[in-house]
Amino acid sequence: MNLGLGIDTGGTYTDAVLMDLSSGAVIEKSKALTTYPDLILGISNAINGLNPENLRHIKFTSVSTTLATNTTLEGKGYPTGLILIGYSVAGDLPVDDLIEIRGGHDTDGNALDDPAVDFELVEEFVKSTQSKVASYAISSFFSVRNPEHELMVKEFIQKMTDLPVVCGHELSRALGVYERTLTAVLNAQLIPVTHQFVKSISTVMQDKGITSGMMIMKCDGSLVSIDEALKRPVESVFSGPAASLVGAAHLTGKSTCVTIDVGGTSTDISMIQNGIPSVSDSGAMVGGWKTMVRAIQMTTSALGGDSHVWFYQDIHIGPRRVVPLSLAAVQYPGLVAKLKCVDRPSERILDAVVQGTSFFIASGPSTLDIALSAYEQKVYDAICSEKEPMSVYEISGKIGDHPLMFGKALDALILKRYVTHIGFTPTDALHVLGVYSKWDNEAAMVGAKILGDYTNRKPEDVCERIREMVSEKMATDLAAFFLPSLSAEDIRALVLGSAFTKMKINMPVVLIGAPVMAYSDKLCELLDIELVLPKYFDVGNAVGALVGDVIFRSDVLIRPKSVGSNIYTSFNESGKTEYESYQEAILEGKKWIENRIYAHMETYGLSEESVRIEIRQDEIKAGYAIEKPLEVRLFGVGVGTPRRIETLADDSSEAAKKESSVTV
Q: Which InterPro entries does this entry report, sorted A to Z (predicted)?
């Protein structure tokens, strides 16, 4: 047998599938709860659900994850120190520790100043922050023209600390210093998340005797080696949704469709046309941050099965993920009794953390040694003193302070992953409604009653409203995906404003994710759509991780050294080179791109004959009378397949489609 193992680690579940690589048919699947903070147990449990006899036949392993996406959406990235070279930041950035030093380059790659004169500032900055941060990011003015200053500072920092250091030019060759800086920061924040994920997968594979190579899906729907993924984890920020899209097309046999992927933390909408994922050229937008990451065109919202449902003046859902009450009650049987007699905070002090349905349990030491403030340590010690989840007022009794005083410290402990938050979720609402009953129904019902008391509604009415809110959000997000120029208010008016009109989507809508059936009927009420649920809709991401290609992109910028000059300067990620003629610059630029692509593909064992390369040449001219352009950009794309999957014959493929999916 020639089997492939696909693994997807999401916010709630870790999925595993075995696929026959010769036919593309799914052999078996398995699901297990994702385990925090140690992912190994969840991954191992998922693989344990597969036939152990099949594991020795695995020739190819590929993985995807929503952990990076969820981390960014929830604002839970690990703390990062930022060094700006030659400019001051002109926008918000998700960092608390940053410095600005001299240096940077002009548009021709010429140095504006010497950053070495400020290395004492860098040294002092690193010494004062290395116990507080998990990584460093460096961004220099016009580093896309010349990266030498970023590399100088990186080398200096690496002599002082073993913490990861990320440079802006390593992630994007596009202009836009703010966006490039943001991308570097997010990448640095995600390095510990990706390292933990890869280490966990590798450990389990070794324990199970799985010796195949391993790849991970990037957010543009392509596959990349683990070494590359560890250097650029931000490129896997939409790994799960990209795998879902590719998996949906494979499972349904529909080369053109739009996919709604409902996970534990987020709902993601994306599209594939003629077998090619639609990619956004402007960069991925995640958690409200505009990055330079090339990703599938997607609408994503922090709304999933485990999104926190909380009350302040009205019901709110998300953006944080919490452990559902119904699941926590299985793990901690005493939780139901606590829920029944919990002291409920007054409405005036409620927020997204302090709730009558909120409980907290120590997650164990953080995977990184991130320092706590004295007060955070006090709150953490109080939570650690009990083996069962604690309510807000139980913590208050332990430390002798009102919840208003320790709410921020509690939130910080959650962000630093020292404490796990338990609360009411849409999953709990589905338990109350009888739509889903995998865990403890009583805990879900008591939680719904607490929310009902705040809202003056019956528990069932609260839960039905929560299901409606999730369905409405899915419908409006789908409409917004196709109508991006309309405002959120206009979209809501279009989708929810009239019972006598419906927006029609002229392509199949494929649902992926464990809870999607609970929302399918309401979705069809709101929109005129052909809704398709594949046979393996609950493990679509793991399937998609197996059926991607290796795609490598490279580019070169060519400009005259000065106006009217016959000497041309070529800029690429290695630096700049001057050529004696325009033709030589173009020829060498194309050769450089081809060599970069072939070298990259060779690391995957792919020969030149098995790689498809396309090079596009974009020119900017001042007018028709100008013979040579003012600027040329060469874009190269190489595509190779790391595993051979033969398509089913047309007749059997059609039969498989009819058996493996249901149209709603």
A: ATPase_NBD, Hydant_A_N, Hydantoinase_A, Oxoprolinase-like
Pairing of strands 575-579, 612-620: unpaired
Q: In this structure, is the dihedral angle defined by the CA atoms of residues 24, 30, 31 and 35, taken in order, positive or negative?
A: negative
State the virtual CA torsion across 444, 445, 450, 456 in degrees, nearest 10.
Answer: 130
Question: What tokens appear for 254 in the block?
Answer: 């529909």
The Cα 594–Cα 588 span in angstroms is 10
- Supply φ then ψ for residue 161, to 5 degrees: -150, 155
Q: In whole angstroms, give the CA distance from residue 262 to residue 233.
A: 22
Give the torsion sign (CA, 587, 589, 592, 598).
negative
C-alpha distances (whole Å) from 568 to each of 533, 561, 621, 636 are 55, 5, 15, 20
Q: What is the model's pLDDT at position 189? A: 86
Distance (Å, rounded) from C-alpha 542 to C-alpha 244? 8
pLDDT, residue 648, reads 30
Consecutive H or E run containing 157: helix 148-158
Which whole-number Å values give the CA distances from 391 to 350, 360, 382, in the listed order?
A: 13, 6, 12
Q: What is the pLDDT of residue 415?
A: 82
The pLDDT, as a whole number, for residue 317 is 93
Q: What type of residue sits at position 505? A: I
If DSSP codes are grouped into helix, strand and coil, which group holds residue 643?
coil
The Cα–Cα gap between 293 and 234 comes to: 7
Strands 289-290 and 285-286: antiparallel
Which of 280, 151, 176 lies closest to 219 in space, CA to CA?
Answer: 280
DSSP 37: S
> Which pLDDT value is given to residue 284?
60
Burial annotation 249-283 (CB, 10 A radius, 16+ → b, else e): bbbbbbeebbbbbbbbbbbbbbbbeeeebebbeeb
What's the CA gap between 233 and 65, in Å, rounded? 11
For residue 368, the model assigns a pLDDT of 52
Residue type, 204: V
What confidence score (pLDDT) does residue 459 get?
95
Task: Map residue 317 onto helix, strand or coil.
Answer: strand
* % of the chain beyond a pLDDT of 70: 91
Per-residue confidence (pLDDT) for residue 448, from 0 to 100: 96
Contact 558, 592 (CB under 8 A): no
- Residues 23, 660: Cα–Cα separation, whole Å: 15
Which residues are registered as beta bridge partners of 427? Answer: none
Distance, CA of 266 to CA of 280 (rounded, Å):
19
Q: Report which residue type is found at 632.
A: V
Helices (H) and strands (E) in the chain, counts: 21, 34
What are the structure tokens assigned to 33, written together? Answer: 């709860």
Angstrom distance (rounded) from CA 107 to CA 88: 17
Reported as type and span, the H/E element at residue 449 is helix 441-455
pLDDT (0 to 100) of residue 647: 31
Which alpha helices (H) appear in 209-238, and where do they start and end? 226-231
Strand order in the sheet with 323-324: 323-324, 419-423, 359-362, 390-391
Q: How far apart are CA 391 and CA 486, in angstroms?
A: 43
Please list, residue by residue across 84-93, b when 16 or more beta carbons sit within 10 angstroms of its beta carbon and e when fewer do.
Answer: bbbbebeeeb
Distance of CA 23 to the CA centre of its chain: 30
Q: How far is CA 656 from the centre of its chain?
A: 31
Which pLDDT score, from 0 to 100, does residue 591 have? 95
Q: Are 283 and 298 in contact (CB under 8 A)?
A: no
Q: What's this model's pTM, rounded to 2 decimal places? A: 0.71
